[in-house]
Amino acid sequence: MSWIDDPAFSPDEPFGPQTLPYGVLDTPDGPVVAVRVGDHALPLRALAGEFSAELAPLVAAGSLDPLLAAGRPAWSALRARLRELVSQSAAPPGAELLALSAVTTRLPFTVGDYVDFYSSRHHAENVGRMFRPDAEPLLPNWTHLPVGYHGRSGTVVVSGTDVVRPHGQRRGEHGPVFGPSTRLDIEAEVGFVCGGPVAGRVSTSSAPDHVFGVVVLNDWSARDIQAWEYVPLGPFLGKSFATSISAWVTPLEAFAAARVEVPDPGHPRLDYLVEDQHWGLDLTMEVRWNGTTVSRPPFAGMAFSCAQQLAHMTVNGATVRPGDLFGSGTVSGPEKRQRGSFLELSWGGAEPVVLDDGSTRTFLEDGDTVVITATAPGPDGSVVGLSEVVGTVVGG
Ligand SMILES: O=C(O)/C=C/C(=O)CC(=O)CC(=O)O
Ligand SMILES: [Ca+2]
Ligand SMILES: [Mg+2]
């Protein structure tokens, strides 16, 4: 029996000992690294004496930055030692469990470069049909490379941060008009947090040495600003005002039982995108709009894995550094209730979504709250959870 007295810290629950995500808490003594155990946070600084000389500074830090830089052998050693500490019957000296409802989490690492991909075929086809009704929804490059763009790392915020409705230009009947966005949307995505040595031309087989862990990511998007500004260079102010990520980063190692092959593109891939191991992930996401579950996007159908996306991102020689973040792209499945944006769920506003309280929505209203979570199959029939990403819209 573990000393951790929390029914949510069980292999049958998403945040049992099979998961152990890392986050950073704000405390009166400054920020501290913690691990999530069930519905509690376990601050690690007070336990630094339980770790080797190599690992102790990583857990005594005030952010995940030193851990991200430490590399895969340290990540594995730390996780293995944590597994021992949370499984033993007596609490290690100094251990203190804090209820998640009583802690304040902060952005757990310094976000370096931020890239967002576009790797869901269903999402790309749906958006293509709405934004470019007279063209083929998928351009010819789409199945050959993971299309992406560089986003704005300075506006990546931690779950719980309010999202201020952006202002901008949108198309009007007689030329552009300026004002608060009237088509504010979400994008349900999976985010990958990079770490390990600085490296360029990362191969698909070494990509896992540069991916520390996984978060849920909401790429808030102002569709009216986007639709007017994006030609021909792509997303800009319609997406750069806020991107939210989970407060807890789940180590990539926790997903060993969730790995699947990405779908066959129907043609050979260029060598640098061939995987010798499968890095697709069988995650199921859930999107809740003011408490109503409106969608369950399936991640397993994504056309490119995180390893392929990282290999592509660095194939020109560009380096990946600890703290870099990349988003999978909006996750949409083939069914309506599997779509990862409200643009798609409401089909451009034509088919309002009915919430449990009887109200209807097309795009976000001020005061609306969106929660996105995800789970994956874990070892021995367990479930691995990704911590929620939540945001509430406030008027701008
Ligand atoms: O097809 C377009 O013009 C735009 C598409 C997006 O809004 C997608 C984007 O941010 C990438 C993604 O999340 O899939
Ligand atoms: Ca996106
Ligand atoms: Mg964004």
From TrEMBL:
Keywords: Calcium, Hydrolase, Magnesium, Metal-binding, Phenylalanine catabolism, Tyrosine catabolism. It comes from the Bacteria. It is an enzyme of class 3 (hydrolase). The active site is at H123 (proton acceptor). It holds the Pfam family FAA_hydrolase_N. Ca(2+) binds at D116, E187, E189, D219. Pathway: Amino-acid degradation; L-phenylalanine degradation; acetoacetate and fumarate from L-phenylalanine: step 6/6. GO terms for biological process: homogentisate catabolic process; L-phenylalanine catabolic process; L-tyrosine catabolic process. Residues 115-375 form the Fumarylacetoacetase-like C-terminal domain. Mg(2+) binds at D219, K239, T243. Substrate binds at Y118, R132, Q226, Y230, T330. Its EC number is 3.7.1.2. This is fumarylacetoacetase.
